Amino acid sequence: MRALWLHFPDDPKAVACPDEYLFGQNLLVAPIVEKGATMRAVYLPRGLWYDYWTGERMDGGREIIRPADLETIPLYVRAGSILPLGPVKQFSSQNVAGPLSVSIYPGADASFLLYEDDGTSFNYRKGDWMGIQMTWSDAERKLTLQLASGSRMLPPERRNLTVDLAGAQRNVTFEGKSIELSFTAAAREN
C-alpha cells in the first residue's frame, strides 16, 4: 500500500487525498469509507486510467463521481500496466490448475517481472526461482515474454497464460523461450 503523494508529489490534490491509496505503483484503490454511501468521489491523478471493473478508459488529473455499493470497491489501473492474476491459491505451495490471466492496460510502455519460487524454502538463494519478464511495447502493440536473467523454469515446465488487451484474448504457453504476441489495430481503439 502506498500513499498517493509518494508517486504524485507535485499534485496537490493527490497529496491531500486522505482515503485513496495505490496498491503497488499502478492500482488505485478508493475504498467506500462512509456508511450508507451511494456515490463515491474519486480523484484520479494525472495520466490515463482504466476502471478495473468496466474497462472504461478515462483521463486523470480530475475528480470523478461513481456509484458506490458494498460489493464493488472502486479500483483503477494506470495506463501502461501489466496486471497478472493467477488462479486462487489457499497457500503458497498449493498446486492449482488453470491459466494465469495477464491483463494489459494500453496507453504507455510497461514491464513486469512475474516471480515464482517453491514457496516453502530458501532455495531461491541458490538460484532455484523462476521469473517471467513481461514487456509491453505500446507503439508496436506487442507483448514479449522471456525467462528472466538468472532464473530457470520450475516444475511444471510449462505455464499457460491468457493475455487480455481490451477484450482481445490470446492463449499462450510459456516454456522458457522468448515469445512475442502482437495485437491488432482493433485493440488500439479501446
Description:
The protein is mainly beta. The protein folds into two domains: 2-78, Golgi alpha-mannosidase II (Immunoglobulin-like), CATH 2.60.40.1180; 81-189, Sandwich (Immunoglobulin-like). Helix content is 4%, strand content 43%. It is built from two helices and 16 strands. The strands form four sheets. Strands 1-2-3-8-5-6 form a six-stranded antiparallel beta sheet. A four-stranded mixed beta sheet has the order 9-10-14-15, with no helix packed on it. A four-stranded antiparallel beta sheet has the order 11-12-13-16, with no helix packed on it. Strand 5 and strand 6 form a beta hairpin. The two termini are 28 Å apart. Residues 186-190 have low confidence and may be disordered.
- Predict the CATH topology of the largest domain: Immunoglobulin-like
> What is the general shape?
globular
Kindly state the percentage of residues in helix: under 10%
Q: Report the CATH C-level class of the largest domain.
A: Mainly Beta
How do the strands line up in the largest sheet?
Answer: 1-2-3-8-5-6
CATH fourth-tier homologous superfamily of the largest domain = Golgi alpha-mannosidase II
Mean residue pLDDT: 91
Q: Supply the helix-strand structural class.
A: mainly beta
Strand content: 35-45%
Number of beta-strand segments: 16
